[in-house]
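Q: Please design a sequence for this.
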C-alpha cells in the first residue's frame, strides 16, 4: 500500500492552512495526505485527528484531516507573518523530508513559505524552498518544472535579473538542465522517450546572428550534440513555442529564463499550475503561488493549485510504486 503524502504547513499566517482544509474536503477519498503543522493554526472548526504514525492517516482521513502536530512559538494571525514561527515552519519541512526519506510518506508537498520571516526569525540561509530541500537531500543540482495539464516548462535560470541571464546561462548549466529534465520525465512522469523543446535566448532564436550570437556560438551546437540522446528540438523562438499546435510536439519545454517559462504556463492555466522539483531523490510538488497574505483568513483563496499539486504527487507516487 502506498503511504500518504506529507504536506508541510508553510507560513501559518498565509493561505496554506485554509487551503489544506479545502484540499482535504475534496481529496480525502482519493488522495490521502497528512498535514504537518500546529493544529491551532487551522481554521476554527476544522475536524482533525492527531496522529503519531502516518499509517494511521487512512483510518481517519474520511472524517477528519490527519495532522502530525508540530509545536510553534506563537499563534498565527492571518496576513501578519510572525518571525517567531520561523523555526516551526522550517521544522515542518524537515519532518516532511525525513518521512519521505524513510518511506513513511510517498511524496512531499509544500505549502508556500515567506522567506523574509524565515530569515528574520531563524537566519534561513537558502534562496528558497527548493534550495533548502536540495540541501536536506544532499543534492547539489535540482531543476524547477512548472506543470499543468496543458504544458510542462523548465526555466534554465530562475530568480536572477534579466541582465544576468547571459552570464549565468552556460553550456554546463544547460546540459545539466536537459539531463535532469529528461531523467525526471522518464522517472517521475513515466515518459519512456521524452521529447524536449529548447527555447532560444534571443528574439527569433537569434535569427542567424542578427539578434544575438548565443544560439550560433553554443546553444544550437549543444542542442545538436545532445539531440539524439535526449530527444531535443530547437533552439526555437520563444514567441512561437507555446501555441496549441507547437505544444503537441514536445513533452516539456526548457526556457532560458524565468519569465520566458512562467508567463506562458500562468497565462494558459493559472489556477492549475504545479511546481515540481526534479533532481531530488524523492517526489516534491507545491502549488504555484505564494502566501497571499492579503487574502489570508478570508475564505476566498482558490485551492485549485494545491489540489493539483497533491493529485500530481499522488499520481507520481503511484507510477513510482508500479515500476519499483
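A: Design:
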Amino acid at each position: 500500500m502506498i503511504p500518504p503524502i506529507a504536506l508541510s504547513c508553510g507560513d501559518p499566517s498565509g493561505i496554506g492552512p485554509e487551503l489544506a482544509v479545502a484540499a482535504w474536503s475534496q481529496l480525502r477519498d482519493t488522495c490521502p495526505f497528512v498535514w504537518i503543522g500546529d493544529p491551532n493554526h487551522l481554521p476554527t472548526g476544522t475536524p482533525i485527528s492527531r496522529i503519531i504514525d502516518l499509517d494511521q492517516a487512512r483510518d481517519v482521513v474520511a472524517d477528519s484531516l490527519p495532522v502530525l502536530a508540530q509545536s510553534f512559538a506563537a499563534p498565527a494571525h492571518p496576513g501578519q507573518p510572525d518571525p517567531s514561527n520561523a523555526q516551526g515552519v522550517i521544522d515542518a519541512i524537515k519532518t516532511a523530508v525525513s518521512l519521505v526519506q524513510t518511506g513513511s510518506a510517498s511524496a512531499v508537498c509544500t505549502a508556500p513559505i515567506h522567506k523574509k520571516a524565515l530569515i528574520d526569525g531563524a537566519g534561513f540561509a537558502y534562496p528558497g524552498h527548493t534550495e533548502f530541500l536540495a540541501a536536506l537531500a544532499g543534492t547539489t543540482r535540482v531543476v524547477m518544472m512548472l506543470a499543468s495539464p496543458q504544458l510542462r516548462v523548465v526555466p534554465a535560470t530562475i530568480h536572477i535579473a534579466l541582465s544576468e541571464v547571459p552570464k549565468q546561462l552556460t553550456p554546463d548549466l544547460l546540459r545539466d538542465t536537459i539531463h535532469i529534465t529528461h531523467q525526471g520525465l522518464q522517472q517521475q512522469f513515466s515518459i519512456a522517450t521524452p521529447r524536449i523543446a529548447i527555447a532560444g535566448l534571443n528574439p527569433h532564436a537569434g535569427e542567424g546572428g542578427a539578434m544575438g550570437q548565443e544560439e550560433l556560438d553554443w546553444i544550437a551546437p549543444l542542442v545538436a550534440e545532445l539531440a539524439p540522446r535526449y530527444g531535443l528540438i530547437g533552439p526555437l523562438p520563444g514567441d512561437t513555442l507555446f501555441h496549441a499546435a507547437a505544444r503537441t510536439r514536445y513533452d516539456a519545454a526548457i526556457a532560458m529564463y524565468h519569465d520566458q517559462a512562467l508567463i506562458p504556463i500562468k497565462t494558459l492555466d493559472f489556477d492549475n499550475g504545479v511546481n515540481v522539483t526534479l533532481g531530488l531523490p524523492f517526489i516534491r510538488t507545491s502549488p504555484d503561488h505564494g502566501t497571499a497574505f492579503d487574502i489570508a483568513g478570508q475564505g476566498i483563496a482558490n485551492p485549485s493549485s494545491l489540489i493539483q499539486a497533491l493529485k500530481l504527487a499522488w499520481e507520481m507516487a503511484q507510477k513510482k510504486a508500479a515500476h519499483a
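Q: Thanks. Anything notable?
A: The chain is about 40% helix and 15% strand. The domain at 142-277 is CATH 3.40.718.10 (Isopropylmalate Dehydrogenase).
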